[in-house]
Every structure is written in C-alpha cells, then in structure tokens.
Design brief:
Largest sheet: 10 strands, mixed
Number of strands: 10
Distance between the termini: 14 Å
Structural class: alpha+beta
Number of helices: 5
Oligomer: single chain
Order of helices and strands: EHEEHEEEHEEEHHE
C-alpha cells in the first residue's frame, strides 16, 4: 500500500461538515465517492480534523491509502473534473506509510472574518458587524490565549477528548481591507467549537460587554457558561495545517 496526503479546499456552505453522516452531504463523503468511482474500489479518507456544518477550508489535509503508486498530478486532475465545484484538490504528496493526517499535524491555523461594511459580496464569508468593535481591547484579551491553556471554557460540552490542553502560538485580530478584519488563531490542536466560542467571547469584549480581564477569568475558570454564544460558522476557515517535513517521500 502507498499512503498519500491530499490537500484540498472547499466551500462549506453546502455541506453538513467534513465527516461522513447518513443522509447528509459531507466533504469526506463526496471525496470518498469520487475516489471510489475513479479507482473502482472503496477508498477511506482520514482528515486532519472535522470542520462543522458551514465551515470552510482554505487548506484541509487528508490521507488515503492506495494499493499501488499512482500518477499524483493525473489523479488530482481527474478528481477535480469529477468533484463538485465546492471542492478543489490542491495537491497530492506521497508520505511514509505511518504518516497520519490528524495525529502528525504540528500546527493548525484558522481564520475568522468579520466586516463592518454590509455588502452582498462579503456576507457569505464574513460576519457582519453593524458597529465597529474595540479591536484593541479584543487583541488585549486575545493575548491571554498565547501559550498552553485548558480550553474547557471554549469547547463544546461533553466532547470526547482526553485533555482540553492546547498550545496557542498566534491569536490576533488583523485588518485586511477597508472595513474587513480577520482573527488569526494557530495552535497545535483545537477542540470542538473552540474557535467560534472564542471569537464570540472576544466580540463581546469588543462590544464592551466584557473586559479583557473578564476574558482571562473565563479562560482560567474552565467553565463553558462563562463563554459567550458561538460566532456563526459561515465566516470560519481552516486556513492551513502543517507537518514535519520528514513525513514526506
């Protein structure tokens, strides 16, 4: 068997998340169906994570096992011809047989996009804010996220994980254009709903409902009830996933 990493982008608006579900359209499901059609055998796809319904990916990574070495550029071309326009395969790279798209990832980066300019051209991929929040206060609060912390406060209740510890290396709001901002959030791992719950709480800091000290208290309390409502999924993108170079052949 030969293992490959697939790099893909997708518009999550039309999907019920990444993971295969009965009677629902998912990214993993469509990708496995396309591979099965082209290779004439069942192919299992393992993603670097599980994006929720409506969440997009600028670059998701998944691994597949094929019975033999293939012409990667040709398979990428054929997949893109077969898949719907909402999914695009960016690249395909051979990796070591034990390389794992989820467990070997060393860094994941998410972007959350907001705009204060109401427009039909931005509303699909941005959260519209009717007034400008205090981004300086939001960045002060976000600075408390850096380093290793227990993110129970910002995770989905009842998540089946062994630990809520995550190490954050980037957490800041950046202006990217007139009236447009994005929250850049990088960590070694993310919990379910962690990005959207964090963004929702930071936005309440920006609206003056919470102070940066309140945000720090919520983080340290490990109490989901202290986090604000989760921000909408439409504006969230998995931006990148990184791996040790020694995994690649």
């Amino acid at each position: 068997m030969r293992r490959y990493f697939l790099y893909l982008a997708y518009d999550g608006a039309s999907f019920h998340g990444w993971q295969v579900q009965p009677n629902a359209r998912t990214v993993q499901g469509e990708l496995e169906q396309a591979l099965c059609t082209l290779l004439r055998q069942p192919i299992s796809v393992t993603g670097a994570g599980r994006t929720d319904t409506g969440v997009h990916a600028h670059k998701m990574v998944a691994h597949i096992d094929l019975p033999e070495e293939v012409d990667a550029p040709q398979l990428v071309y054929r997949l893109n011809r077969l898949l719907s326009r909402e999914i695009h395969i960016i690249d395909m790279r051979a990796v070591k047989s034990d390389a794992h798209a989820r467990f070997d990832a060393t860094l994941r980066t998410y972007h959350y996009q907001v705009t204060i300019e109401e427009s039909p051209f931005t509303q699909r991929y941005h959260l519209y804010l009717p007034s400008t929040p205090d981004f300086e206060a939001m960045n002060e609060a976000a600075s408390h996220l850096l380093g290793e912390h227990d993110f129970t406060t910002f995770s989905k209740v009842g998540s089946d994980v062994h630990t809520h510890l995550c190490t954050v290396t980037a957490a800041s709001w950046q202006e990217i254009g007139h009236g447009e901002w994005r929250f850049v959030f990088s960590a070694n791992r993310f919990l379910r709903n962690m990005v959207r719950a964090t963004v929702g709480t930071l936005l309440d800091v920006g609206r003056g409902k919470l102070t940066p000290k309140d945000f720090l208290h919520a983080l340290r309390a490990r109490d989901r009830s202290l986090a604000s409502s989760s921000a909408i999924a439409d504006a969230l993108f998995l931006y990148n996933v990184k791996y040790p170079e020694e995994l690649f052949l």
